[in-house]
Amino acid sequence: MVGLARKPAVLEVPATVGALGEIAAFVLLLAGRAGLGKGATYRIRLAVDELATNIVMHGYRGGDGRITVRGRSGPDGVRIVIEDTAPAFDPVEGRLPPAPGVPPERRRVGGLGIHLALTSVDTYAYARRDGRNISTLTVKAEGTDACPPRT
Amino acid sequence: MPLSVSLSIEGDTTVIELTGELDAKTAPEFHQTIEKAAGHGTGTVEIRMAGVGYMASAGLRSLVFAQQKVGSGVTIKVVGAIEPVSRTIRTAGLDRSIQLSDG
Question: B67 touching A, CB under 8 A?
Fold first, then answer.
């Protein structure tokens, strides 16, 4: 993304529920540096939180692991890259759009977190490289409407 | 930011008031309160969320859990949720079974 700072900030944390707050604080810091509005800040935080939660709960299946979050902020917005070494998982395939015909008590909410994440950001890309799952998300500083996720 | 949860009864309504952030870490506290609220057996469970500045899908899971716990004859209301929180509830389609209001 043009206009983003060259040097990324990096956070590496254990893949635990307890570390999610640290990841959120890191994302909020980057959003603040980029001068994102309230809506865009909420969206990037939600997206990263949902993807990180999914890595903790399902990626490493409760076992040991680490999550690396890299971020760049600039006048155009924020780009976040999330990496883990859990088994290959492409969130675009794992998303679960809402099922209007299904009664709430029988609905799976799990995949909905990923759906929320992918519809909250302006761009999304997944890659599997060198045994790592790599998610790249961007939220634009000025965008108000989230675009559909892309692969 | 932690979550504060309070529980009270006003007539035939059980009131749960949430303040803080509702995510994978804090949702278990909300779950415990829902269990207690379901035991009250009131006709309505009102969840006041004006003080919730952030809600992840773990919060949606809690709301679905609440519906399962209280049964079909009980009305669940979510009152005062900020716009991105109510949007998340609508995205999940939960506004069909849970009454959303500005309070």
Answer: yes
